[in-house]
Amino acid sequence: MKCKLMTLSRRYEAALRKHLGQSHRVGTRISRASLGAAQGLGRQAVATGLEPLEMARLHEQALVALDGQGERLPARAGAARGKLASDFFAEAISPIEETHLTARRARAHLSELNKTLRRRTVELADSNRRLKRRIAKRKTAEEALRQSRGHQTKLLKESLRLERSLRRLTHRLLAGHENERKKISRELRDEIAQTLLGINVRLLSLKADATVNTEGLQKEIASTQELVARSAKSVRRVARGLERGK
Fold first, then answer.
1. How far apart, in whole angstroms, are the C-alpha atoms of residue 155 and residue 168?
2. How far is 58 from 35, CA to CA, in rounded Å?
3. Residue among 99, 101, 88, 92 at smallest CA distance from 39
4. Tens digits of per-residue pLDDT, 138-152?
């Protein structure tokens, strides 16, 4: 670092001497070539890492060295020489100032980026919290749905079991009703048949006893027998219908 600074100091002094010498010969007109050299030295100072204050100290040292080597000039010429030296220093310091300006702009831009990053970080954290809440709600809903499906499956199984039980019970009830109906039908048929048979026997007896009676009595008895026979036939038909479940 010290070696680079010494090299830069010698170059600066040489470039400044050349600038002042050319400008002294051409008056106050500024040499573009020498000012370009000043800018080149400024860029070297930037690469070396010099600050504006250090560059000003280097410029003062170069002026002191040049004053010790030259002759004393008239006041007017000395003022012009000082103006030329100031212009040279302004050109030499411009790359450092531009670098500092760029650095300030970069820092400002970085500050804005940091603010944006912090804002985005806050927004991202908020989004993550909302996402976690939605995930928790979804898991709760999925668990509730899973439990609901399990409960529905259990209810379906229970419903099928009850349906089978009801079907068996209905079958037993229908079978019991059918057996009871057939039993009642048989009892009714037997009872009616026995009653009608008794009536028929009684009528036969009356018919036999009525051989001595009038012809009208015999007809009445015959009519009664026919009625009883038709009744017995109807009862048997009804009983058969009950047995068949009609």
1. 20
2. 17
3. 92
4. 888 888 888 878 888
